[in-house]
Amino acid sequence: MSEFVTHIREKKLKKVVIDPVTRVEGHGKVTIILDDENHVERTRFHIVEFRGFERFVQGRPFWEAPVIVQRLCGICPVSHHLAAAKAMDVVVGVPPDKLSPSAEKVRRLMHYGQMLQSHALHFFHLCSPDLLFGFDSNVMKRNVLAVAAEYPDLAKLGILLRKYGQELIKATAGKKIHGTGAIPGGVNRHLTVQERRGFQAQIDQMIEWSVGAVELVKKVHGQKPQFFDTFGSFDSNHLSLVRADGALDFYHGRLRAVDSQGNRILDGVDYQDYLEYIAEEVRTWSYMKFPFIISLGKKMGWYRVGPLARLNTCDFIPSPLAQKQFEVFRSYTDGRPNNCTLHYHWARMIEMLHATEIIKELLADDDLSTGELVRRGERQPAGVGLIEAPRGTLFHHYRVNGNDQITMCNLIVSTTHNNQPMNVAVHEVAAKYLEGCEVTDSLLNHIEVAIRAYDPCLSCATHALGKMPLAVEIEDRRGSLIARRIRDSRS
Amino acid sequence: MSCRTLILGFGNPGRCDDGIGPALAEQAEKWGLAGVEVTVDYQLNIEHAAEVAGAELVIFIDASLTAAAPFSFQRLEARLKNDFTTHAMLPETVLETSRKIYGVLPPAYVLAVRGERFELGEGLSPRAREYLDEAEKLLKMILSAEDRRAACLRAAGTM
Question: Is B159 among the domain residues?
């Protein structure tokens, strides 16, 4: 469980530090600053570790990028693998529309397999304890093992869905993690007919389970609709890739952004030109940047990405069962964007269902087993690759010199896009549930629940035994450290 | 007769000595010993419980900042550890998950090899390489034994 410190300071401001946030990837730290009436004055969601990956890849040969960058994350390495490969496609002169059908379909299968495994992990193993047992339940109960004890079939189902997605990744990328399937200009393998048959034998079961997962979310929502609709909710802009015809597409498309009422801010934007539309603000208290839409400015231009945003920006879902669920989802807010934070879970499960339907479609396609794998064109000095990762839009941008070395790398990961929204969500929840200096365990979990809805990936660094110390820090108003408490993850 | 043995090496090879677990597990795979299944992963997670449940003996291999050099080898007890992320489970919790979901709890050990450097970068430090060589001797001895479980008990008893 997380630890927190309440401290009353000399200038009648109190700082409550919650570190780390449980059940998100990596470290997280929340600071809540109270005024002298014990109302929330400010909140900050910090990132503890700086990755430095953008420097790490400089000087490396460009063709290594799709493999190296996977080490950013152990949960969705395929997103980085494919985003880097897409950027390097451009560098080797093969823009997305020139990729061979076989290469694109193998990549899509890899990516949709990843979407399935990541969404299954998040929902069944991170969020289901909150949803099934309630935010106020005993902390010892809010974990996946309690789910396993009380709902063993559900826990098994989560494992099997995730496993299926991971096996797809293994078949298309070569390995479950750090695969090499996508290379600049294409892919390096087909799927055998036998492999496809193996996956085809199980896919209907995966679809059925995914339908069940959507229904489970709806059922849980139906028990306390007002609570789910208002918890940590706020109006925002939303951004994602959409296919040229407006369809939901996880692998490729053009940038679209809508405001909280559904008015389009950006549409049809070629992401090679993203720097003309998106900028990043640096704030002194966080290693993570704050992206915003340039035309709206820093204050109004922040936006959400991920499942909720994708279902708010797209016009339809190109698979029948998910489309049916999408219609219910959209009608819930009368066709306008859904700004309810906890509806991320609902959107995520609709996406999981869509992923299984597309996987079925792809597995029936002979292009997976035959056809041209790699193409080459005119070498370019730079390339941008975007993909809709499980957590949201992922940007990879590289420049490459005449010696084929990477000279510049800019990554905007999904969690960075959601930086400001997560801060807003924390503030909304803290302002509603935190009064005075009394921080109950229940209150703590409410804050964490708001953050977990975004499925943030803060730092997949080392997981060595004895590493990962948990720090609790108290600072004064000038930023001087007053106290620090370190807890080892095995203590 | 040798029992079905799962070697589970985990860690991030992009963080120097954190790659000890994968490096040693991959080495073990090359030995091609009967009844040995090797899994390499970035971090432990819930699905590893399914693999654990199918084994008669499990050896987790990880880098450690706190183990006495060159390595430690200890029996693991299944237990729920409410860590701050289920994206990276502890070996004990993977065991507990196997017990809870599949009703199976094979004997399990952790081979924790001392690491020195964990910053961004590839390749093991010279010191970690030495420790890994030492740990490799133990692992080979265990996996080559007629009775692997007895070999594990003996090895853990001498630590």
Answer: no
Q: If residue A4 lies in a helix (H) or strand (E), which one and from where to where?
A: strand A3-8
Going from N- to C-terminal start, the domains of chain A cover 3-46+418-487, 53-416
Q: Is residue B101 in some structural domain?
A: yes
Q: Are A314 and A255 in contact (CB under 8 A)?
A: no
DSSP-derived secondary structure for A214-226: HHHHHHHHHHSHH
**Rounded CA separation A119/A482 (Å):** 40
Domain A53-416, architecture per CATH: Orthogonal Bundle (1.10)
Size of interface A-B (CB pairs under 8 A): 140
- How far is Cα B1 from Cα A242, in angstroms, rounded to an integer? 58
Per-residue confidence band for A282, with pLDDT thresholds at 50, 70 and 90:
confident
CB pair distance less than 8 Å for A177 and B42: yes
Residue ranges in chain B assigned as alpha helix (H): 20-30, 48-53, 91-102, 126-144, 148-157
Query: Which tens digit of pLDDT belongs to each residue from A166-181?
Result: 999 999 998 766 788 9
Query: Which pLDDT value is given to residue A17?
Result: 60
From the list A208, A211, A225, A249, the residue with the least C-alpha distance to A343 is A225
- What CATH architecture does domain A3-46+418-487 belong to? Roll (3.10)
Phi and psi at residue A207, to the nearest 5°? -65, -45
Tell me how far apart the alpha carbons of residues B105 and B124 are, in angstroms, rounded to a whole number: 33
Q: How far is A23 from chain B (nearest CA, A)?
A: 4
Q: Total domain count for chain B?
A: 1
**Backbone φ and ψ of A21, nearest 5°:** -80, 130
Tell how far CA A296 is from the center of its chain.
Answer: 24
**How confident is the model over A114-131, as pLDDT tens digits?**
999 999 988 887 788 888
Gyration radius from chain A CA atoms = 22
What is the band of A23 on the pLDDT scale with cuts at 50, 70, 90?
A: very low
The ipTM, to two decimals, is 0.75
Q: Please, where are the H alpha helices in A121-192?
A: 128-133, 144-150, 152-173
pLDDT for position B84:
42
Chain A residues with CB-CB distance to B18 below 8 A:
462-464, 467
pTM of the full structure: 0.85
Q: How far apart are CA A382 and CA A61, in angstroms?
A: 13
Token pair for B61: 């291999």
CA distance A312 to chain B (A): 28
Q: Is the pLDDT of residue A423 over 90?
A: no
Put simply, the chain B residues between 84 and 123 with a CB less than 8 A from any chain A CB are: 84-88, 90, 93, 96-97, 100-101, 110, 112, 115, 118, 120-121
